[in-house]
Design a protein that fits this description.
The structure is a homodimer. By secondary structure, the first copy, chain A, is an alpha/beta fold. The first copy, chain A, folds into two domains: 3-119, Nucleotidyltransferase, domain 5 (2-Layer Sandwich), CATH 3.30.420; 161-274, 2-keto-3-deoxy-galactonokinase, C-terminal domain (Nucleotidyltransferase, domain 5, 2-Layer Sandwich), CATH 3.30.420.310. Helices cover 36% and strands 25% of the residues of chain A. Chain A has nine helices and 14 strands. The first copy, chain A, has helices at 46-57, 86-91, 121-128, 163-173, 188-198, 203-215, 223-240, 254-266, 276-288, and strands at residues 7-12, 17-22, 28-34, 62-65, 80-81, 94-97, 101-103, 107-111, 114-118, 136-140, 145-151, 154-161, 248-252, 271-275. In chain A, the strands form three sheets. Chain A has a six-stranded mixed β-sheet, with helices on both faces. In chain A, strands 12-11-10-13-14 form a five-stranded mixed β-sheet, with helices on both faces. Chain A is globular. Chains A and B meet through strand 8, strand 9, strand 12, helix 4 and helix 6 of A and strand 8, strand 9, strand 12, helix 4 and helix 6 of B.
């Protein structure tokens, strides 16, 4: 049974896992979303985890992408250097069972001090081109947001920002935590934060205002919105500096897309939104066509 | 016994406390440095803590400054609004025992969205003027660094940055933690970080490079130095935007002064360094002259 007869695509992250059974028409049948990210699989447990997925989704060939191929995952799949396209990524799949079970490599950028890596977003980036022109700037928000410059359908270069992780650290551990309890929303506080971030203000300079305004009885309606807006505004400013003036391909989770779309609108930029799962499935589809 | 006969000055912070017995010549006699910051004093325990200080340092009048006057301290001493000088601060001391035991108020800034507060640094700022011209930009590095614009000897306005706290969060809880184990030093990695921060790069954009370079075998000699330099460079950029072109009064702990002095030199600025304890004692001295 080859890839044309259907396959299983797994987006295997640090904390979460999504597995899709794809049929011979390319349609998704059963789908599993669970918390069996690489950190939640016991040492030596990946073989059994894959067998279990096959029992549930069908005994088919399987591609795994994301942190599963990192040095903290199952086996380390060496990075493919930029510029990278679907051909280069498919050629460098790390085969665990030849032609039956492979790990998609990440993509790296290595130039002087500019060094960067991605694992998982490369599949979504090539897949997103189904809905985007071959020369596009893609924004992929997340714990580590990625801004990816696509040129002629290839991942030309990219940049990672610790935007989501910083927000999570502030929310969980900082002196601002009591003011960051709400869920950020694209409201007026968010807009004020975005404006400050887009203006080039280092977030650390405006963040303390969340606490100071609270202490002075002038608190934000939603402090989390302001802080999120500030970090996202700074993220967008850095991302847009990678160039281009067309619509931004905004790929990822719907809640984060809503925030980034609001921020990008504030920056005067159009967006084409693509659900992360759709981009992922399209990307894995492109890879299987090459197998 | 009045203030002219000697007094006790206490810099009472969140986690640490420093108490100094000052004699009638203004010289410091015994000094206590301990971990009895406000978070480490049991509820209702401040009266006894003060009595204990008097047993050790002498039964003298006493001024307490810092977070002891916050809503998490002993009693809340309302902020004095900017612009504020030694007169305004002395007039607004919160007396617990009239004329014998007082809490120095913090200083606030409240203008539109610009809101800020300080507690403790105001004493060091007015005290630092013993060594600085009356119109000076003061940099006070710390968990929450403060840049303070002094005009005609008054605290005119100021800005707080969460620089030290962000670094601590990254070191303790982030994905970069394994690369941030060393103590930051003003080395080549630090200098590269400062250059990126001064250039206006949002720290979240360059921070991930610490991890990416490590994964690609091009790691910084000292990742902590790079990350610290990046945050301090961004801090200095924001601080210098408050204006002025004279030497910067650099007030605080010697280890942080060394890092900021290196960063400010990179930005082409001269510094006049003043130990935080010296500035604090000079500031308390100015207040007692008004009592």
């Amino acid at each position: 049974m080859g890839w044309r007869d259907g396959y299983i695509a797994v987006d295997w992250g640090t904390t979460n896992r999504r597995a899709y059974a794809v049929d011979r028409q390319g349609a998704v049948g059963r789908e599993i979303r669970d918390g069996h990210g690489i950190m939640n699989v016991p040492a030596g447990g990946f073989e059994e985890a894959v067998a279990e997925l096959r029992r549930q989704l069908g005994d088919q060939p399987m591609l795994l992408a994301g942190m599963i191929g990192s040095n903290r995952g199952w086996m380390e799949a060496p990075y493919v250097p930029c510029p990278a396209d679907a051909d280069a990524i498919a050629e460098n799949i790390l085969w665990i069972e030849p032609g039956r079970l492979g790990i998609v490599p990440g993509v790296s950028l290595a130039a002087d001090r500019e060094a960067d890596v991605m694992r998982g977003e490369e599949v979504q980036a090539i897949g997103a081109l189904r809905w985007l022109p071959p020369d596009t700037l893609i924004c992929h928000p997340g714990t580590h947001s990625k801004w990816i410059v696509m040129r002629a359908g290839r991942i030309d270069h990219f940049r990672t920002l610790m935007t989501g992780e910083l927000f999570a650290l502030l929310k969980a551990h900082s002196i601002l935590a009591p003011q960051l309890r709400d869920v950020p929303a694209p409201d007026a506080s968010f807009d004020a934060g975005v404006a400050a971030g887009l203006a080039g203000e280092a977030p650390q300079a405006a963040l303390f205002g969340v606490r100071a305004r609270h202490l002075l009885g002038k608190g934000d309606a939603n402090g989390a919105s302001f802080a999120s807006g500030l970090l996202i505004g700074a993220d967008i400013r850095a991302g847009l500096s990678l160039g281009g003036n067309g619509p931004i391909g905004l790929v990822g989770r719907s809640d984060l897309r809503a925030l980034y779309a609001a921020g990008l609108a504030r920056a005067g930029r159009e967006t084409i939104e693509i659900a992360g799962a759709d981009a992922f499935l399209a990307g894995i589809g492109l890879l299987t066509e090459r197998l």
